[in-house]
Specification:
By secondary structure, the protein is α/β, with parallel strands linked by helices. It has two domains: 227 residues, P-loop containing nucleotide triphosphate hydrolases (Rossmann fold, 3-Layer(aba) Sandwich), CATH 3.40.50.300; 132 residues, 2,3-Dihydroxybiphenyl 1,2-Dioxygenase, domain 1. 28% of the residues lie in helices and 26% in strands. It is built from eleven helices and 15 strands. The strands form two sheets. It has an eight-stranded mixed beta sheet with strand order 9-10-11-8-12-15-14-13. It is globular and about 65 Å long.
Length: 368
C-alpha cells in the first residue's frame, strides 16, 4: 500500500467509513502516549520515532490536537513538532482533531491506529490531548500506555492519580534534567506502593529533546509483545452515551448544566430522526438529551407512551459489521439498517425484545 493510498483510506475513516473488511489485524504494537499538557508528549513521540527508525522499525503516528470551541478549528501543532520525520518513508504521521470528543482522543483515533497496524507498521504511536485525569480512553485499545509526567508538577501528580495514573503500563518522567526529578519519581513510587509488586509499572526518566533515556525505553517496547487479542478485545464494548427523551431541551438543560454541573459539548438537529439533540459530558461517556421536532417522530411517540425518561443506552464497538453479523446469527432483532446519527456516527438499534427490555444503540467506534 502506497503512502497516498493509506492517506486516502485514513481520510475515509475520518469521514466515518468503516475499516476495510479485508484489512489484516497486523502485528504492530499500538503505544498510547498520554499525560498533562506541557510534559513533552510530542517531543517524546519524536524521540521514540527516531530511535525506532535507527533500529529499522517502521512507525505510524496518530497525533491528536484539541479542537477550538470558539472557532471549531485545530492548530495541529504536533505536526509542526514532528516535521523532521515527514521525509522518512518509514514514518507516516496523521494529525487529527478531537472535534468535541472527550477522553483525550478524536472519534477516529483508534480506528486510524488499527488501520496503520493493519497496513504493516511495526509501531503505532497515539499521542493524546492529555488535558486531565479523565483523558484515558487510549488505555482501552493500546497495547501499552505511557503516562508522561515532568518534574515540578507538584500537586498535579496527586490531582491526576485517580485517572491516568491508574492506566499506565510505563511511567515516563520527561524533562529529567530539571530540578525535582527525585521528588516526582518518589511520588509515583509512593502511589505504586499501594499495588502488588508484580503489577507496578516501571518508571523511566527521559530528556526527549536530546534522547537521554529513550534507548532504554525502546528496549522495553521492542520486546513487549502485543496483548493476546480475543473477540472481546476486538469488539471493545464501551458505553458511549445514555439517551434521555425530554419534552423541551430549554426546560431540561438547566438541571444538567447548572444543578448537576455537567458541560454541554454540543447541540444539533438530526433531520431524518426529527429530533433536537444536546450532548453533555459525563466522564468518559455522555448524556444525550432528545427533544422531538415533530409529533410523528420516534421520540414524540415514546414521550406519549411512557413520558420523559431513559430512552436507550448506546455502546460503541470497533467493528460494527462484525457485531451485527453475530447478533443476526444469534436471532437478535435489529431495527433497520445502519444509518448516520448525531455527530455523524454509524449506528443501529437492537429491539428491546432481544435484550430484556432495553433499547440498545450499537454505534461504530470512530475512535472508533
Amino acid at each position: 500500500m502506497t503512502a497516498r493510498e493509506l492517506a486516502q483510506l485514513a481520510t475515509a475513516v475520518e469521514n466515518g467509513e468503516s475499516l476495510p473488511a479485508d484489512l489484516p489485524k497486523g502485528d504492530g504494537l499500538i503505544v498510547g502516549i498520554t499525560g498533562p499538557p506541557g510534559v513533552g508528549k510530542s517531543s517524546l513521540a519524536g524521540a521514540l520515532t527516531s530511535e525506532l527508525r535507527r533500529r529499522s522499525k517502521t512507525v505510524a503516528i496518530v497525533a491528536v490536537d484539541p479542537t477550538s470551541k470558539a472557532t471549531g478549528g485545530a492548530i495541529l501543532g504536533d505536526r509542526i513538532r514532528m516535521q523532521s520525520h515527514y521525509a522518512d518513508p518509514g514514518v507516516f504521521i496523521r494529525s487529527v482533531a478531537t472535534r468535541g470528543a472527550h477522553g483525550g482522543l478524536g472519534r477516529t483515533s483508534i480506528a486510524l491506529a488499527r488501520l496503520f497496524r493493519g497496513a504493516g507498521f511495526d509501531f503505532v504511536l497515539v499521542e493524546t490531548v492529555g488535558a486531565g485525569q479523565d483523558e484515558i480512553d487510549i488505555a482501552a485499545s493500546a497495547d501499552a500506555t505511557l503516562v508522561v509526567l515532568a518534574p515540578g508538577m507538584g500537586d498535579d501528580v496527586q490531582a491526576i492519580k485517580a485517572g491516568m495514573m491508574e492506566v499506565a503500563d510505563i511511567f515516563i518522567v520527561n524533562k529529567a534534567d530539571r530540578l525535582g526529578l527525585e521528588q516526582t519519581v518518589g511520588e509515583i513510587e509512593a502511589m505504586l506502593s499501594l499495588s502488588p509488586a508484580n503489577e507496578r509499572a516501571p518508571i523511566f526518566p527521559t530528556v526527549a529533546i536530546n534522547g537521554t533515556g529513550v534507548p532504554e525505553l525502546v528496549n522495553v517496547l521492542v520486546h513487549l509483545a502485543p496483548k493476546v487479542r480475543d473477540p472481546s478485545r476486538d469488539t471493545q464494548w464501551l458505553i458511549d452515551h445514555v439517551g434521555i427523551a425530554v419534552r423541551s431541551l430549554a426546560e431540561s438543560l438547566p438541571f444538567y448544566t447548572e444543578q448537576m454541573g455537567m458541560k454541554l459539548t454540543g447541540r444539533e438537529t438530526v433531520e431524518h430522526e426529527r429530533v433536537h439533540v444536546a450532548m453533555l459530558a459525563a466522564g468518559p461517556s455522555r448524556i444525550e438529551l432528545l427533544e422531538p421536532t415533530s409529533p410523528d417522530s420516534t421520540i414524540s411517540r415514546f414521550l406519549d407512551k411512557k413520558g420523559p425518561g431513559l430512552h436507550h443506552v448506546a455502546m460503541s464497538v470497533n467493528d460494527l459489521q462484525a457485531v451485527l453479523k453475530r447478533l443476526e446469527s444469534g436471532g437478535a432483532k435489529l431495527l433497520g439498517l445502519p444509518q448516520r446519527g448525531a455527530g455523524g456516527h454509524l449506528y443501529v438499534f437492537v429491539h428491546p425484545i432481544s435484550s430484556g427490555g432495553v433499547l440498545w444503540e450499537i454505534i461504530q467506534n470512530q475512535g472508533v
